Amino acid sequence: xxxxxxxxxxxxxxxxxxxxxxxxxxxxxxxxxxxxxxxxxxxxxxxxxxxxxxxxxxxxxxxxxxxxxxxxxxxxxxxxxxxxxxxxxxxxxxxxxxxxxxxxxxxxxxxxxxxxxxxxxxxxxxxxxxxxxxxxxxxxxxxxxxxxxxxxxxxxxxxxxxxxxxxxxxxxxxxxxxxxxxxxxxxxxxxxxxxxxxxxxxxxxxxxxxxxxxxxxxxxxxxxxxxxxxxxxxxxxxxxxxxxxxxxxxxxxxxxxxxxxxxxxxxxxxxxxxxxxxxxxxxxxxxxxxxxxxxxxxxxxxxxxxxxxxxxxxxxxxxxxxxxxxxxxxxxxxxxxxxxxxxxxxxxxxxxxxxxxxxxxxxxxxxxxxxxxxxxxxxxxxxxxxxxxxxxxxxxxxxxxxxxxxxxxxxxxxxxxxxxxxxxxxxxxxxxxxxxxxxxxxxxxxxxxxxxxxxxxxxxxxxxxxxxxxxxxxxxxxxxxxxxxxxxxxxxxxxxxxxxxxxxxxxxxxxxxxxxxxxxxxxxxxxxxxxxxxxxxxxxxxxxxxxxxxxxxxxxxxxxxxxxxxxxxxxxxxxxx
Length: 577
Hints:
By secondary structure, the chain is of the alpha/beta class. Helices cover about 35% and strands about 25% of the residues. Among the domains are: about 20-30 and about 45-185, 3-Layer(aba) Sandwich (Rossmann fold); about 465-575, 2-Layer Sandwich (GMP Synthetase, Chain A, domain 3). Strand 20 (about 435) and strand 21 (about 440-450) form a beta hairpin.
């Protein structure tokens, strides 16, 4: 069935039309001029320093012109590095008039980076100095004819071009009348972005996206959640990932907001305070850790009962349109810099109690659903209409339906819209498997409720199917396990059991050893004691589940699971007992 979405009033927020990413940047520059587009850390200065929209345009035009002068017009150019201003300029300089941009995960081992560079047929790499080892491996094993550009190079030497030298060269060319980049023709429907999916499967796919894909998604999502030009986005997730790239980089630039880059996960609290950020995109693991820390700190200081009472009082007053949350919970807000007003979660489903919990404390919290193949946003909750247990409503211009729903309404989620990819590069068979009659088959399972909200029950390939045909969704059980203070993370899977003559639900558990040590007065429990403790937690979870979903087998592991850079467990790498 096609979704029938009530009119929630999103059309009132319709934003300006943009044809392509360069059009988006230039129109924002025209509107916002000297307003800060970025806040960056500089070695010789204290705190975050502003970089204006005008400066962004100047640097984009300069680098793009210099790249074309290097003979890279129409070529594939990889960008590899940590979140930083130079990464943003490089991305824009490639995609907005030079060629095809190929963002690559800097955390991948050198051999995998080499493989992706080869698969994408890259002819130049713009890289951070921190990735020099990986780049050297690319050079030695494949890319002796590739042009290398170092974001941190002090000068061009040893065949590696310094980023700053290109900026200076490009500015000189532009001043002399070179308009090859500035006036470059852009076809919004051709491939301009080549993105590799997060490797939660055994081989990432190369997704071909166009300017049209990205720009229709930008215009659509901008109607769903209010963003003000005064907002400062705090960028935590890796920019090579389409969620952060579209929503945390291009979206704020489209809407006239600013971007401040995090220096690393351990610096989140400090950087939030320094940047005075108002909006942060994240993944469930980040927000769940932050929320858990709030309550652990409250309990440690003997303030947890007071905090619970404050929430009750605050929620009662909200019924009369009286909101005292920011004042009542000022110490918590101060820990986040005192300005955070909005958290947005993506990449996986979050426990509804977390989103409601943050909202109870005075921070708006919404989650959405998307895929790299959809540029990425498909659905999102918003400040107009939301449900904490749902992935949201389809963004304008996107259709969703459930393919072959079962008795409970659950089936595969399929998507149609201008945001859907062109296909998988070099893989027509894989493309044909997921693109059928204009619909993209996501591989995710879910249902649409009576209000048009999408609910995700998770990946089709990870469903545990019992011999009598019962479907069990691992993520549902993992969410319950991870609520335990003693469990750091978990992975649920099916295991053939000869005695049962069926598939049984099993779990691999990573205990929170630090928490356990604190709870037991600094004493580290024995392996048997830890197993008994976790077994008791599993019993509590089983009480919340129907019998066929009960966890009947579990293992304890000391090391965390291997994850993608958006903190998804790489299930295919985990060999269970």
